[in-house]
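Exercise 4. Each item below gives a protein and its sequence. For each, produce the structure-token representation.

Item: Aldehyde dehydrogenase family protein (Marinobacter panjinensis).
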Amino acid sequence: MQTYSNSVYGESVETPEHQEIFNPATGDSLGLAPISSESDVGSAVNAARKAQPDWARTSDQERRDAVVRVAQVLEENSEYLAELITREQGKPLSGPGSRFEMQASVGWTQVPAALELPPEIVYEDEERKDTLHRVPLGVVAAIAPWNWPLMIAIWQIIPSIRMGNTVVLKPSEYTPIATLEMVRLINQVLPPGVLNTVSGDGRIGAALTSHPDIDKIMFTGSEATGRRIIEASTRNLAPITLELGGNDAAIVLPGTDASAIAEGLFWGAFLNMGQTCACIKRLYVHESDYEAVVNALSNLAQQMPIGDGMDENNLIGPLQNKMQYDKVKDLVADARANGCEIMEFGTVPDTGYFLPLTLVGNIRDGQRLVDEEQFGPALPIIRYQSLDEAVASANRLDAGLGASVWADDPEQAQQVAVRLEAGTVWINQHGAIHPMVPFGGNKASGYGVEFGLEGLKAVTQPRVISIKK
Ligand code: TXE
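Answer:
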């Protein structure tokens, strides 16, 4: 059985403890992932600390070149890593699956390499000149989730190293192997200590985020863990970028052509089996269009091949883990028990954590499947009578990551979009993130933004040089 290891200061580091990782589609063993100890966390942070001053002293151009080399490594190893993602995480190779995740990882590496954040004159008169420089923070702790394990790790790693920080990354305990392999490959083109890993569950995440030598925390995960990380950061005062998932509402405006929007709505809700932070998790449809929208989504759902993602014909895979599988099943069972209409599509294999694609009708605000983040392939479709009521429904929860408005007329949609409380409101698309466009949550979905120039600023601190003339 293959044993995987952490990377610290450019070396492969063994741990005495391991956990076996299984394919969520087949139950097959993938190998042994390391479990770090708290002293391993200290060693990884020390390695990152040791490497940081020299890395920060390299020129901007050298760091850009290094990030370009990382993009090349990702491209060259795309198929190997995509297959590992499919076996470990479950998303299929095809469609918006693991090959797509690798393409996105390459794109989110190339774009920060191309961006510039030069010093900015913020004030000047006859007597003084004040220039704002962006300097690295130091050592970044990156805590990654299991839904898009490589892409989200890249979101955390690349801006950090591009701006002169060094990184200690902890992948999710559900999906460590593909991420550790990616880091092993990337480290062939980075100086020792710039990118290090530790592995394990929340205990190791807590040891990392509370370490006194951490200068910045990047976190994507649950709200509960986000709150723990804020508490942990009182030990190091590290600023945090917190991306805490959401419960995104989509509103279809009255009279919208259902066939024109069905595919966008479908993938908006079922991308990665719904295990995506900015997926449509509540769909609000005017009562006059309800049947047309449900029919259009049902037609698409029943055509989707479900199964092991290593088979290139499959477009829908399993849930990633038992915790998530049980959670989605429980929310659907609750809806069923409360008289909702459960519409299930697809033939589900006997092995693994597969669930049918599920549309849930005759459901209202206040029911658990609407109010709790399902993070899975079960979409509640709620009828509304007036737009004011739909907007109030969309805004009534604490979550505020994304939202979307769907309409034949984008101008009309815009008038509704500005009323929605979310970090991004999409029109006639959902979850359409882009490496140049800042992305982050409002309300309980977190704070801080990733991507683009704003994302680069978030891994730096301002330093003003003020000259008397
Ligand atoms: O998340 P956790 P889980 C949501 C989704 C899901 C729920 C629970 O609704 O059902 O969260 O998933 C690390 N200090 N999202 O339990 O625990 C952990 O090891 C530091 C939405 O997997 O938040 C992992 O690496 N780190 C989300 C990471 O935090 C800690 C993606 C995320 O795990 C820690 C994933 C601690 N005290 C789940 N405890 C999104 N925003 O897309 C755990 N971790």
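Check: The first strand starts at residue 6 and ends at 8.
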